[in-house]
């Protein structure tokens, strides 16, 4: 695929609760291209996590469409499981499987869903573990790891499915401050390897440094969108200016 | 030695111990298969009920939701009837009404006790499934597992571990509950003791003997489950 091909296209995405009384998402339109790192920022309650969770249908939108590799995944006839295999997701609270070793956490999906042999899946997993410096923890259980280690495992677990895009839902918000860096480092490396990423975060430094595009959301709408330089150095809307004044 | 004489007449004369021995075999057989049936029924019902509770409000109206609503309704009817009537009555209905044509009393008892136990196991398992963090389910689905796979590989193993003590208790209750199988003239352990009593006109020896055997069985299974529990826990810390 060429670098500029559209991977995800979002059209007029709506997510309403209580029959429209609450509009968590109110008409989002965007395109995410191959290799882009889109960072979504905004105050809490702005709908940024909801937006991210809609992209792989963990939240079912109440209106609009999402096209992934040209297929409308909001269509009820689409088998979402097939598409989710190509969309890795990393959660705020890691969500590792506590009853499995680290290695098992990583190889179960490729083995059961991609029909890889155990040896094949293990080789891939060990390679990824080496990249994040945790190959010696392969046989540990999640409860034996620190928060930063857990999140790095969660990232490589998603990578084991060899996804086309990685979705990050506030990956560093539940971490102790001294562990944020090690997780961001892995994400930076991933961006360097040309992985397409959508990242919801409060780490403005990461957004500025790694993001190819920044999307600012408030009240379920995308208020402003642009390069990190445009967003951080030259914010146009009042909402964004107020927000940046508080977080920077 | 009066006790010795009574022991001999109750257990040794005419090989009377065989009533207890054969009865024990029947009791264990009925309990074992009833537990299997109960767990099978219980897990299925628990999955239906917890799926309904977790998802019905967010599901789109359609064929899938209609099926789920219907299945949930069936499960609720089952739970209400089974938990609302005594097991002895259920056993007799099974023997004299539903399977009146069958002469296989062991099978009748397995079905009656298994179907009865399923209702209690279902509620045990439902609480176990509901106690698993929603993030586990989301993590499974986000990797591309479908609903059944997520349940099978991620949710149920964790839920099983959490409910093991309650499940062990249900097993112990069931083991003792099968002692009413004599109501349909099934020669289980209790019935075996009762037969001896009717031969020797001595109630003390056979009934205490039967009670002791139950007690030893329960103590053995309690020990076994404790061991299993410790092994499952050790994998986490």
CATH superfamily of chain B: MetI-like
Beta percentage of chain A is 25-35%
Low-confidence stretches of chain B: none
pLDDT < 50 stretches of chain A: none
H-E order of chain B: HHHHHHHHH
Word description of this protein:
The complex is a heterodimer of chains A (248) and B (237). Chain A is built from 9 helices and 10 strands. With 248 residues, chain A is an alpha/beta fold. In chain A, the strands form 2 sheets. In chain A, strands 6-7-8-3-9-10 form a 6-stranded mixed beta sheet, with helices on both faces. The longest helix of chain A is centred in the C-terminal third of the chain and has 16 residues. Chain A starts with 5 loop residues before the first strand and ends with a helix. The mean pLDDT of chain A is 94. Chain B has 237 residues and is an all-alpha fold. Chain B is built from 9 helices and no strands. In chain B, helix 5 crosses helix 7 and helix 7 runs antiparallel to helix 9. Chain B is elongated. The termini of chain B are far apart.
Tag the structure with descriptive keywords.
heterodimer; A: 248 residues; alpha/beta; six-stranded mixed sheet; four-stranded antiparallel sheet; 25% strand; globular; B: mainly alpha; MetI-like fold; 9 helices; 82% helix
Short summary:
The complex is a heterodimer of chains A (248) and B (237). Chain A is built from 9 helices and 10 strands.
Helices, strands, pairings?
The complex is a heterodimer of chains A (248) and B (237).
Chain A: E1 6-17, E2 22-33, E3 37-41, H1 48-55, E4 63-68, E5 71-72, H2 80-84, E6 87-90, H3 102-113, H4 118-131, H5 147-159, E7 165-169, H6 177-192, E8 196-200, H7 204-210, E9 213-218, E10 221-226, H8 228-233, H9 238-247
Parallel strand pairs in A: 3-8, 3-9, 6-7, 7-8
Antiparallel strand pairs in A: 1-2, 1-4, 4-5, 9-10
Chain B: H1 2-12, H2 17-55, H3 63-84, H4 87-98, H5 105-130, H6 134-143, H7 147-177, H8 189-200, H9 204-234
């Amino acid at each position: 695929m060429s670098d500029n091909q559209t991977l995800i296209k979002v059209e007029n995405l709506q997510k309403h609760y209580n029959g429209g009384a609450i509009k968590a998402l109110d008409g989002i339109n965007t395109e995410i291209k191959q290799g882009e790192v889109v960072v979504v920022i905004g105050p809490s309650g702005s709908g940024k996590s909801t937006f991210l969770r809609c992209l792989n249908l963990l939240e079912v939108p109440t209106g609009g469409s999402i096209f992934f590799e040209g297929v409308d995944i909001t269509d009820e006839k689409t088998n979402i499981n097939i598409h989710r295999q190509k969309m890795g997701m990393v959660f705020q609270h890691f969500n590792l499987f506590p009853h499995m070793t680290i290695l098992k956490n990583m190889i179960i999906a490729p083995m059961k869903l991609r029909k890889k042999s155990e040896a094949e899946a293990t080789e891939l997993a060990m390679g990824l573990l080496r990249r994040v410096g945790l190959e010696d923890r392969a046989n540990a259980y999640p409860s034996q790891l620190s928060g930063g280690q857990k999140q790095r495992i969660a990232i490589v677990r998603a990578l084991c499915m060899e996804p086309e895009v990685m979705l990050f839902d506030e990956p560093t918000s539940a971490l102790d401050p001294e562990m944020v860096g090690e997780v961001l480092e892995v994400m930076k490396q991933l961006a360097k390897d040309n992985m397409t990423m959508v990242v919801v975060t409060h780490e403005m430094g990461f957004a500025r440094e790694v993001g190819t595009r920044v999307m600012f959301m408030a009240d379920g709408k995308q208020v402003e969108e642009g390069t990190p330089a445009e967003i951080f150095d030259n914010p146009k809307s009042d909402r964004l200016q107020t927000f940046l004044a508080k977080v920077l | 030695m009066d006790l010795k004489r009574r022991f001999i007449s109750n257990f040794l004369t005419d090989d009377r111990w065989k009533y207890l021995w054969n009865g024990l075999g029947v009791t264990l057989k009925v309990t074992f298969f009833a537990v299997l049936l109960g767990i099978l029924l219980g897990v299925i019902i628990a999955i239906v009920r917890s799926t309904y509770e977790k998802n019905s409000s967010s599901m789109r109206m359609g064929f899938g939701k209609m099926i789920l609503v219907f299945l949930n309704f069936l499960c609720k009817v089952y739970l209400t009837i089974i938990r609302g009537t005594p097991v002895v009555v259920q056993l007799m209905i099974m023997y004299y009404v539903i399977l009146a044509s069958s002469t296989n009393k062991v099978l009748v008892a397995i079905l009656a006790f298994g179907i009865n136990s399923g209702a209690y196991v279902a509620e045990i398992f439902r609480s176990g499934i509901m106690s698993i963090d929603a993030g586990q389910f989301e993590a499974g689905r986000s990797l591309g597992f479908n609903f059944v796979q997520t349940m099978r590989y991620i949710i149920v193993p964790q839920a099983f571990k959490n409910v093991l003590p309650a499940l062990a208790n249900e097993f112990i209750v069931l083991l003792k509950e099968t002692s009413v199988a004599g109501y349909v003239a099934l020669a289980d352990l209790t019935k075996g003791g009762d037969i001896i009593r009717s031969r020797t006109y001595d109630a003390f020896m056979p009934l205490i003997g039967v009670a002791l055997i139950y007690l030893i069985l329960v103590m053995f299974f309690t020990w076994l489950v404790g061991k299993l529990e410790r092994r499952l826990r050790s994998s986490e810390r």
